[in-house]
Amino acid sequence: MSSVSATHIPGSWINGAAVPTGGAPFEVINPATGAVVATYALATPADVDAAVAAARAAQPGWAAATPADRAGVLFELAELMAAEADTFIAEEVAQCGKPVRLATEFDVPGSIDNVLFFAGAARHLEGKASAEYSADHTSSIRRGAVGVVATITPWNYPLQMAVWKVIPALAAGCAVVIKPAEITPLTTLTLARVATAAGLPDGVLNVVTGSGADVGTALAGHRDVDVVTFTGSTGVGRKVMAAAAVHGHRTQLELGGKAPFVVFEDADLDAAIQGAVAGALINSGQDCTAATRAIVARDLYDDFVAGVGEVMGKIVVGDPHDPDTDLGPLSSFAHREKVAAMVSRAPEQGGRIVTGGVSPDLPGAFYRPTLIADVAEDSEIYRDEVFGPVLTVRSFTDDDDALRQANDTVYGLAASAWTRDVYRAQRASREIDAGCVWINDHIPIISEMPHGGVGASGFGKDMSDYSFEEYLTIKHVMSDITGVAEKDWHRTIFAKR
Ligand code: NAP
Predict the structure, then answer these.
(1) Is this entry keyworded Oxidoreductase (predicted)?
(2) Which strands form 148-152's sheet, in the order they lie side by side?
(3) Which residue among 156, 209, 413, 470 has the greatest number of ligand 1 atoms within 8 angstroms of its CB, and so is best to mutate?
(4) Is ligand 1 within 6 A of the CB of residue 259?
């Protein structure tokens, strides 16, 4: 794997080429070291206008390409991404501080698999078969590309979040303007470059960097886009929705989460302990589906807390380039301060810090895996998104209480239930309000299945055929099959003929 040296990069990719942008200078910082990874000039609202105009101009031609042609470009993109995997990995590690194992085995191959899935799916987009729902007509459904998609993505999985938003839109025949988080633009810019090399027509995929307040606002509220999709926090998602609503644009929002991790008394305790640590610490806990609220049967509670504390204590925190590292830093120093402040307030609200709660003596934005037991149901650490390597634990009395606690949140993105009882598993999967419920596991995702939440976690789906609903229109075509001038239904208009 190559490493990323601090270079000045163009801040946007518009109409098939890197475009130097005119905004303020910005430094991409490696959170593992504090070193500058790259510098670029932020995009401006004028760059957003140029990107949207390029997308608008390119979209009809792309939509008119045959599904096979669109699939061909996406298959080529997947091949080129695989050929440039080392670049994507190096950039993801440098800009996020991701452990190299995670970038190598999850972020990059997962993104490539997603492109491959949609390359195939592009060819079986279809409306419903024609039928005569009225005796005098044949009805059929046509699906069409919705047009130009504006999308805004977060910093936790920059490449995967870009792929989840961009690729189904491209497969459906849309053109896209994407704004990545300003602290992690590298892999999104590389994705656009590689897509152009794969044969994607100029203007079909455009990237504008820049801050959310400036460029994000301009993009979400742009008059000349058709759909606004967003992955990020619930608060910003609502602002994005409000900006898009000014023009009546369709939105899709993938927002925050506070996933319950319910351990019933018949669970395999070792599996639950192992799963809780993995589910809480993946990507330093900066995962919207991460296990954050362990809700554990009273009989297992003490053993669960002791077991999780012990496994967390052995987690290797350090250099993301070292394949033996388990946990990298948080994505920025500012975010580490936010996580540390939330943890430091937890004991005032009754939480007991079992392990962690400190930053290790390392130069980067690191934070030790943290387990907080006995948290109060109304405490900040239990209710609000921390987005760090922090797991809270509470006990429950019976199954009703467990499921009540699982649903006692405004969020509804993901959840897991740990049990060997098939009826309990069925009940949990039925009654927990979330876009995904895992049974005896927590975190795995696959391209064929949808990802997306309910409640304050947003609406609409990424991945899978379900995501096409965001990017396609539905048109009813109703054809007369009688051939007569005086149609039967005309009697409702012409009384005396
Ligand atoms: P964030 O602060 O909401 O930012 C997300 C994106 O929105 C960034 O590109 C940001 O730009 C931009 N933005 C900020 N203010 C904006 C505004 N007023 N108008 C338009 N865009 C604006 O989220 P984050 O801190 O990057 O990511 C963490 C959050 O994402 C967590 O809440 C997590 O749960 C959520 N997330 C959800 C999913 C899911 O699938 N449901 C997946 C991953 C992450 P700048 O950062 O450049 O200012």
Answers:
(1) yes
(2) 17-19, 12-14, 205-208, 175-179, 148-152, 227-231, 250-254, 458-459
(3) 156
(4) no
Question: SS3 for 439?
Answer: strand
Nearest atom, ligand 1, residue 209 CA: 47
Fold (topology level) of 7-254+464-476: Aldehyde Dehydrogenase; Chain A, domain 1 (3.40.605)
Instruction: Please tell me the pTM assigned to this model.
Output: 0.96
Sorting pLDDT into bands at 50, 70 and 90, what band is 21?
confident
Atom of ligand 1 nearest to the CA of 288: 34
In the chain, domain spans: 7-254+464-476, 259-439
For residues 160 and 110, the answer to whether their CB atoms sit within 8 Å is yes
Q: Is 72 exposed, middle or buried (0-12, 13-18, 19+ CB in 10 A)?
A: middle
- Please provide the CATH number assigned to the domain covering 259-439: 3.40.309.10
- 124 vs 249, higher pLDDT: 249
Phi-psi region for residue 283, left (φ > 0), alpha (ψ -120 to 50) or beta?
left
- Cite the DSSP H helix spans in 264-409: 269-281, 298-313, 333-345, 380-383, 399-406
pLDDT digits (tens, 9 = 90+) for 119-151: 999 998 887 778 999 999 999 999 999 999 999
Span 176-206, pLDDT tens digits: 999 999 999 999 999 999 999 999 999 999 9
